[in-house]
Amino acid sequence: MAGQRANPVTPPIPAVIAITVSIGPLILASASSGRLRLLRHAGFDPQVVVSGVDEPAVTTTEPAALVMELALAKASAVAAAISDGLIIGADSVLDLDGIAYGKPVDADDARRRWSIQAGRSGVLRTGQALLFVVGGEIRASDVSAAAATVHFGRPDEAELKAYLHSGEPVQVAGAFTIDALGAQFVDSIDGNVGTVIGLSLPLLRAQAARLGIRLTDLWSTVWPTR
What we know:
Layout: E1 4-5, E2 26-28, H1 33-41, E3 47-48, H2 63-79, E4 85-96, E5 99-101, H3 107-117, E6 121-134, E7 137-152, H4 157-166, E8 186-190, H5 193-197, H6 201-210
Parallel strand pairs: 2-3, 2-4
Antiparallel strand pairs: 1-7, 4-5, 4-6, 6-7, 7-8
């Protein structure tokens, strides 16, 4: 599914056509191991700076707007604490019937989630904010969202009990993963798998391009030519 540009969320300043100064370090404003793993597997070695944003304080309820607002809040919080860098902020929710489901509060909540989503399809929405900071000022920004449809299976009672006991469901939006224990309970997805994990690399590439940046210039490794 195509990326969505921010309408309800206003970036700090407009995006620019080209970046003419040093980009600085790539910074991930998230504690998500899945997002970090995606970036590393794609050739990047980002610094991790956790934003500390109070997510419950954001009261937007529309799922796509919510993830964009949270992504921007996370990236902006980190931008205020650094002098230079390209900051990635991201947030994800599961959209079921227009209701945004983030991380469950506990195992009982995760069980309730699965009683709703088992055998159904939902939309995993990931908001991404890309901020370019120079000298402590945000020079350019882009806030967008990606979406992927998730078709859930039906774990039986013993399977669900084991999954809840693992502790994984309470750590992730939607109470499931596509790249770890929960993958066996997802029948299929329509869209980019990174979106479901928490970071759409195709969307990130498009966002960087709108800022005049090629992501390949930020690879941490020089790959040998064949």
